[in-house]
């Protein structure tokens, strides 16, 4: 029968403290001026790379290697940390929604049948990120859902858009709005009253995460549910074009707006009896709105009016909280994660990041599960992030504080595994500010040094890796790798993640001298890290985990 007990590794000892460091958004790419990791002074990461070749290697962090639909899909933190923690590749939200739409099963489930009850007499609201980034949502899935819902009786539809510019190029919002408006006008020709009702930039409206700043969600609530916003427009295209023309405006941070009719009334507030679907499949930036929509008791902001709605998520965002209770597509069933195994085998675990990445090394690492497996063996520490700023103005973020917490945890002797996420490369990379991203990379490297020094002091082991690329490439390129220019001759800044591989480096005085990376695994990915971590703790990984990256030489 099934057992949580992991077999002892035949050669590797137990009891060596292990630091697991995830550099968020730290990929490997050719060195040039748009590679901020290359430009920045990163002596520690450089020394790992230029050290023993059997202790540093690259692994895949994008596409099918992390459960995404295709190898054209860039990596992201959700799927990256899921793979790192779970040690296996699960079909992820993007793919599961694709499959459910293609087979039509999405329309047969409890979630759709539930919201359908509102179609006859009320409005269907679709709220989510409008882009083809494929990280949180995808435009083509929204298009299919609009078509499917209208064919199944939805008569009045309101779409509440969040503009992207973070997983896709800044400025692309205009094209996505045009495409959506075109689809909606085709629905109107068929007699369906379908319109965009509100909008705003994803980083300023709705899509906060890990409860960093509830004001973001409130701004969305006011526009989407109450129909109130500082800006009112007759059409979303006019809204996005006008608001983008403001100085320093960008897609990520557009202010909230509502679409109004000729008498100035919002065209799509959420009313009693309506159905609401949040169309994002990814959890971290939708779960706060899900709470506001679903919970009767809610004190994070004044909702003013709480309509009685039928609400479903595209996916269930939190399996532990069962939130939301209704959803259109079942999430990946990520169970038996390495974190759970290791805790059950006595590994005392410390995990830390700052707010904006805290859930990455806890919730995502543990298979989209919040909370501890065993409170007596785990401690998760969240360092409050700066809120209300874009991280290019404070690119060092809390890297130092995270490293100091990790150092203290390592030196305390109370933990077998100390796991951190250093957010800088990613969070600053997303701003598109190249200078600031260079500062960010340096700060992350300095944090790694603090952690490795502590590992050295206690005779421990380290494993340093990343979840996906970002800071190593800040420019959009053509097929031959040349930077693409925009209409005015400037480079096209890449705010998004990349398709690049990421490093895995191992070492430390506690590492058995015979340990080296295997050469017999052709194209390993992030999912191979979990078995590696288990080995470094002195255990064999479960048989169905992706194979370990390491082997132990005889002498
Ligand atoms: C975000 O949510 O900030 C981006 O869409 C993806 O970034 P992450 O996957 O690194 O969190
Ligand atoms: Co990112």
UniProtKB/TrEMBL annotation:
What range(s) does the Metalloenzyme domain occupy?
Answer: 16-540
Catalytic activity, as annotated: (2R)-2-phosphoglycerate = (2R)-3-phosphoglycerate
Residues forming the catalytic site: 77 (phosphoserine intermediate)
Q: Which pathway does the record list?
A: Carbohydrate degradation; glycolysis; pyruvate from D-glyceraldehyde 3-phosphate: step 3/5
User: Domain BPG-independent PGAM N-terminal spans what residues?
Assistant: 97-318
Question: Looking at the Swiss-Prot or TrEMBL record, what is one Pfam family this protein matches?
Answer: Metalloenzyme
Q: Which top-level enzyme class is recorded in the Swiss-Prot or TrEMBL entry? A: isomerase
> Which Gene3D superfamilies is this protein grouped with?
Alkaline Phosphatase, subunit A (3.40.720.10), BPG-independent phosphoglycerate mutase, domain B (3.40.1450.10)
Species in which this protein is naturally found: Panicum hallii var. hallii
Residues that coordinate or bind Mn(2+) 1:
426, 430, 497
Which GO BP terms sit in this record?
A: glucose catabolic process; glycolytic process; response to blue light; response to carbon dioxide; stomatal movement
InterPro entries recorded for this chain? Alkaline_phosphatase_core_sf, BPG-indep_PGM_N, Metalloenzyme, PGAM_B_sf, Pgm_bpd_ind
In the UniProt record, does the keyword Manganese occur? yes
Q: Where in the cell is it found?
A: Cytoplasm
The name of this protein is: phosphoglycerate mutase (2,3-diphosphoglycerate-independent)
- According to its UniProt record, which protein family does this protein belong to? Belongs to the BPG-independent phosphoglycerate mutase family.
**Binding partners and assembly:** Monomer.
Offer an example of a GO molecular function term for this protein: phosphoglycerate mutase activity
Which key words tag this protein in UniProt?
A: Cytoplasm, Glycolysis, Isomerase, Manganese, Metal-binding
Entry binding sites for substrate: 136, 166-167, 202, 209, 282-285, 357
Stated EC number for the protein is 5.4.2.12
């Amino acid at each position: 029968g099934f057992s949580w007990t992991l077999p002892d590794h035949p050669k590797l000892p137990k009891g060596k403290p292990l630091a697991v460091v995830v550099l968020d958004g730290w990929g490997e790419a050719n060195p040039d001026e748009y590679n901020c990791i290359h430009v920045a002074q990163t002596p520690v990461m450089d020394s790992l790379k230029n050290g023993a070749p059997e202790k540093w290697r690259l692994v895949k962090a994008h596409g099918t290697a992390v459960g995404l639909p295709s190898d054209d899909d860039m990596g992201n933190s959700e799927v990256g940390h899921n793979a790192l923690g779970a040690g296996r590749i699960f079909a992820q939200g993007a793919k599961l929604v694709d499959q459910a739409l293609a087979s039509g099963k999405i329309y047969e489930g409890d979630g759709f049948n539930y919201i359908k009850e509102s179609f006859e007499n009320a409005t269907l609201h679709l709220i989510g990120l409008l882009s083809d980034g494929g990280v949180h949502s995808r435009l083509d899935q929204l298009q299919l859902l609009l078509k499917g819902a209208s064919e199944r009786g939805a008569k009045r539809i309101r779409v509440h858009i969040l503009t992207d510019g973070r997983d896709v190029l800044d400025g692309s919002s205009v094209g996505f709005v045009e495409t959506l408006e075109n689809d909606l006008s085709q629905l109107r020709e068929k007699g369906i009253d379908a319109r965009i009702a509100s909008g705003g930039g994803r980083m300023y409206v709705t899509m906060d995460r890990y409860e960093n700043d509830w004001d973001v969600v409130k701004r969305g609530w006011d526009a989407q549910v109450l129909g109130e916003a500082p800006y009112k427009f007759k059409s979303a295209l006019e809204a996005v074009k006008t608001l983008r023309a403001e100085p320093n405006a960008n897609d990520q941070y557009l202010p909230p707006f509502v679409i109004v009719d000729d008498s100035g009334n919002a065209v799509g507030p959420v009313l009693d009896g309506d159905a609401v679907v949040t169309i994002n499949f990814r959890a971290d930036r939708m779960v706060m709105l899900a709470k506001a929509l679903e919970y009767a008791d809610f004190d994070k902001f004044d909702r003013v009016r709480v309509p009685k709605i039928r609400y479903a998520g595209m996916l269930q965002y939190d399996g532990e909280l069962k939130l939301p209770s209704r959803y259109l597509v079942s999430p990946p069933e990520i169970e038996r994660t390495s974190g759970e195994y290791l805790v059950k085998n006595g590994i005392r675990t410390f995990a830390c990041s700052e707010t904006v990445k805290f859930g990455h090394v806890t919730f995502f690492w543990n298979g989209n599960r919040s909370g501890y497996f065993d409170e007596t063996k785990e401690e998760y520490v969240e360092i409050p992030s700066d809120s209300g700023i874009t991280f290019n103005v404070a690119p060092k973020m809390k890297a130092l504080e995270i490293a100091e917490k990790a150092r203290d945890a390592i030196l305390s002797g109370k933990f077998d595994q100390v796991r951190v996420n250093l957010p800088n490369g990613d969070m600053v990379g997303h701003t598109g500010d190249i200078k600031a991203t260079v500062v960010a990379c340096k700060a992350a490297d300095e944090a790694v040094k603090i952690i490795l020094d502590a590992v050295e002091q206690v005779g421990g082991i380290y494993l340093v890796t990343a979840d996906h690329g970002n800071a190593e490439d800040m420019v959009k390129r053509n097929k031959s790798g040349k930077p693409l220019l925009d209409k005015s001759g400037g480079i096209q800044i890449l705010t998004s993640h990349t398709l690049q591989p990421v490093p895995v480096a191992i070492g430390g005085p506690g590492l058995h001298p015979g340990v080296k990376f295997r050469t017999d695994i052709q194209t390993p990915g992030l999912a191979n890290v979990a078995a590696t971590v288990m080995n470094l703790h002195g255990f064999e990984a479960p048989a169905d985990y992706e194979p370990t990256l390491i082997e132990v030489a005889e002498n």
